[in-house]
Amino acid sequence: MLVYKFGGASIKDASAIKEMVKIVNQCDDNLIIVVSAMGKTTNRLENIARLWFNGKDIETPLNELIDYHQNIISDLFEQNVPDNLNSIYESLWEKLRSTPSLDFNYEYDQIVSIGELLSTKIIASYFNILNTKAHYIDIREVIRTDRNFKQAGVIWNLTKRFALERFTFENYKIYLTQGFIAASTNNQTTTLGREGSDYSAALLASACNAKKLVVWKDVPGIMNADPAWMSDAQKIDALSYQEAIELTYYGAKVIHPKTIKPLQERGIPLIVNSFIEPQKKGSFIGNVDDSKSTLPVYIRKQNQVLISIRPKTPEFLAETDISHIFKLLSDMHISVQLAQMSAASFTICIDQIEYMFDPFIAELQEHYHVKFNDNAEIITIRNYNNESLGKVLKNNDVLIEQKTRKTAQIVRFMEN
Ligand SMILES: Nc1ncnc2c1ncn2[C@@H]1O[C@H](COP(=O)(O)OP(=O)(O)O)[C@@H](O)[C@H]1O
Ligand SMILES: N[C@@H](CC(=O)OP(=O)(O)O)C(=O)O
């Protein structure tokens, strides 16, 4: 049995969906298909959620979202739109007619999850009119999480049990379900963090002990840099689980960072293939020895906030201060991407975050002098050498530089 995951780009319009069906038809094995929201739907829904939460007008973005999906529906089905697709926006309308609670993250999940529900309902209906029958599963009945909305933590025992109960392959050869979304044990919709569909697919592959997980992307495989950033990026044919974990940890956006662990635990290979050239070999991630690789790999993590924290007294920062700062970060669910200590100050890099940023800074300012700059990026180079460092540094000012034997990290202002 295999798991295939199709991201937003691979189902962004009717012709992409038709290509996806061709890829599915090439597979002779039992299959679970995990799909994301279509195109940039999640971004649109995030925007709608924010506007609605702040009492702003949502008519224009809502109409754009509906028109986008309606165009895909009419291109796919022409005059024969199935009846069940007439009511697919109802839960969204109902939500947007209600009054928001005070919990943005909760409301965000209720709205943003609709992208995956729309895409799977449309694609399931399309499969239904073809010879390729795919059985629709609402993944919220399978992937169970805590109530940490927007970044929910998976309850693995329950998830594994429900996955084995639902994906039996007794009556069906192909299942179709959503990535990214899940439900808490009291049945509230949650999400696993942006771009979390790769992770959903890995959870299902691991629970059902798949032969492999194939994620279909708009790139030839995992490259030694984002090809949208470095046009001379090269495909990496094979990577170890550990190296893949490192790259995603440092921010290589091609795979969600939580994807590898569930696969590694069961020795399930991950294949990153191109949906544009599906016949070509992509990247293989598995039990590979790449410890001797010298190919530099460049990772750029943008939209970072660099925060410098100094004591208000003439004292140096002590361990109790560091502990206090990390406790605050942990309580506010803020992850530190990089930290550096000097005699005078403690500097951290965090992702730009909504809503929690101001309270975090305000709390810090009660105890420390705080300066921040929200226009930073972290460049990480695995297997760095002078040439690769020179390639990214050029004329930029370096705000922080850290090196270990294998990895160099540089914080600098974002390039425009
Ligand atoms: N090292 C890398 N190798 C390949 N692609 C990368 C890398 N780093 C970033 N990317 C970007 O990741 C994108 C594919 O990932 P993503 O958009 O999350 O896929 P999807 O949403 O289809 O699952 C590519 O379009 C590419 O710009
Ligand atoms: N649709 C969600 C989940 C996801 O993983 O999407 P994609 O596979 O298109 O990156 C998002 O955009 O965050």
TrEMBL record:
<dbReference type="InterPro" id="IPR036393">
    <property type="entry name" value="AceGlu_kinase-like_sf"/>
</dbReference>
<dbReference type="InterPro" id="IPR042199">
    <property type="entry name" value="AsparK_Bifunc_asparK/hSer_DH"/>
</dbReference>
<dbReference type="GO" id="GO:0009088">
    <property type="term" value="P:threonine biosynthetic process"/>
</dbReference>
<feature type="binding site">
    <location>
        <begin position="253"/>
        <end position="254"/>
    </location>
    <ligand>
        <name>ATP</name>
    </ligand>
</feature>
<comment type="pathway">
    <text>Amino-acid biosynthesis; L-lysine biosynthesis via DAP pathway; (S)-tetrahydrodipicolinate from L-aspartate: step 1/4.</text>
</comment>
<keyword id="KW-0067">ATP-binding</keyword>
<comment type="similarity">
    <text>Belongs to the aspartokinase family.</text>
</comment>
<dbReference type="GO" id="GO:0009090">
    <property type="term" value="P:homoserine biosynthetic process"/>
</dbReference>
<keyword id="KW-0808">Transferase</keyword>
<feature type="binding site">
    <location>
        <position position="42"/>
    </location>
    <ligand>
        <name>substrate</name>
    </ligand>
</feature>
<dbReference type="InterPro" id="IPR001341">
    <property type="entry name" value="Asp_kinase"/>
</dbReference>
<dbReference type="InterPro" id="IPR001048">
    <property type="entry name" value="Asp/Glu/Uridylate_kinase"/>
</dbReference>
<dbReference type="GO" id="GO:0004072">
    <property type="term" value="F:aspartate kinase activity"/>
</dbReference>
<feature type="binding site">
    <location>
        <position position="116"/>
    </location>
    <ligand>
        <name>substrate</name>
    </ligand>
</feature>
<protein>
    <recommendedName>
        <fullName>Aspartokinase</fullName>
        <ecNumber>2.7.2.4</ecNumber>
    </recommendedName>
</protein>
<keyword id="KW-0418">Kinase</keyword>
<dbReference type="GO" id="GO:0009089">
    <property type="term" value="P:lysine biosynthetic process via diaminopimelate"/>
</dbReference>
<dbReference type="GO" id="GO:0005829">
    <property type="term" value="C:cytosol"/>
</dbReference>
<dbReference type="InterPro" id="IPR005260">
    <property type="entry name" value="Asp_kin_monofn"/>
</dbReference>
<feature type="binding site">
    <location>
        <begin position="5"/>
        <end position="8"/>
    </location>
    <ligand>
        <name>ATP</name>
    </ligand>
</feature>
<comment type="pathway">
    <text>Amino-acid biosynthesis; L-methionine biosynthesis via de novo pathway; L-homoserine from L-aspartate: step 1/3.</text>
</comment>
<dbReference type="GO" id="GO:0005524">
    <property type="term" value="F:ATP binding"/>
</dbReference>
<dbReference type="Pfam" id="PF00696">
    <property type="entry name" value="AA_kinase"/>
</dbReference>
<keyword id="KW-0547">Nucleotide-binding</keyword>
<keyword id="KW-0028">Amino-acid biosynthesis</keyword>
<feature type="domain" description="Aspartate/glutamate/uridylate kinase">
    <location>
        <begin position="2"/>
        <end position="272"/>
    </location>
</feature>
